[in-house]
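Figure 3 (text version): structure tokens given as input.
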């Protein structure tokens, strides 16, 4: 369970590659535990319009889903960056009304990417509390492979765990993504390879533009360009990914369908002639 921590953006993009069709299943207590806040905080955000109302289920019990959790995590991240509640309200008001949990995770990743790296060493019990759920050995191995958690000890129940606080909640959510660990790590490799190549080519372009300029002008241009380039790359990737997934889903027959596209003739093999 050793390895280096990875970037928040990588984990968020992998999370964004999953679907947002999950039905709301969390009670307010479960939602608060998952987000690491109090029930009172959840209800306060609801009264301020920062969270959409829950889905009312049987016995009039409110149920919350992935979008509620993603909004809570984004709000908490914005608060950690020093934004006031009024500023957070304005931020959320500018989001599209149909923003998905995956899109909210991307917003949080962008905000967290500019924060100083924060690593804490905690015990197993505190690790589970921060996760809002029990973590078995398989979960810990997966989090370690993602670079979210590192064991800090020689093995055993008294080990401490070094946790990348910016990545931890995203990593925990990836535990429920129906992708194998191998696929997640392969996807990370693809993202890293392409992002490094894009960074290299853009650096060469800027280097050519600034070859004859004063060093102060170069630093100023770099400071202005970096957030613009990050936003442009992220937006381009999101749109490209949605287009590719849309093509893939359009080409995939619905589950249970048998129209010959899977190599069958649409029959069940029986002779139903009179």
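Below: residues designed for each position.
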């Amino acid at each position: 369970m050793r390895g280096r921590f990875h970037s928040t953006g990588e984990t968020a993009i992998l999370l964004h590659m999953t679907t947002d069709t999950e039905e709301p299943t969390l009670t307010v207590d479960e939602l608060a535990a998952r987000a690491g806040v109090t029930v009172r905080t959840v209800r306060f955000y609801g009264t301020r319009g920062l969270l959409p109302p829950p889905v009312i289920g049987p016995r009039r019990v409110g149920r919350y889903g992935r979008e509620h959790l993603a909004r809570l995590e984004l709000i908490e991240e914005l608060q950690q960056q020093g934004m006031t509640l009024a500023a957070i309200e304005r931020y959320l008001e500018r989001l599209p009304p149909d923003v998905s949990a995956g899109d909210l995770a991307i917003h949080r990743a962008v905000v967290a990417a500019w924060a100083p790296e924060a690593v804490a060493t905690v015990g197993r019990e505190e690790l589970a509390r921060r996760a809002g759920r029990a973590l078995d050995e398989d979960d810990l191995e997966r989090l370690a492979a993602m670079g979210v958690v590192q064991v800090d000890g020689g093995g055993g129940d008294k080990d401490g765990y070094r946790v990348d606080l910016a990545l931890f909640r995203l990593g925990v959510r990836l535990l429920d993504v129906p992708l194998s660990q191998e696929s997640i790590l392969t996807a990370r490799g693809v993202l890293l390879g392409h992002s490094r190549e894009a960074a290299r080519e853009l650096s060469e372009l800027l280097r050519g533009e600034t070859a004859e300029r004063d060093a102060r002008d170069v630093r100023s241009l770099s400071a202005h360009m970096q957030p613009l380039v990050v936003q442009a790359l992220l937006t381009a990737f999101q749109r490209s990914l949605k287009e590719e997934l849309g093509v893939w889903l359009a080409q995939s027959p619905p589950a249970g369908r048998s129209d010959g596209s899977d190599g069958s003739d649409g029959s069940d093999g029986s002779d139903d002639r009179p």
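Strands lie at 55-56, 62-63, 119-122, 149-152, 160-164.
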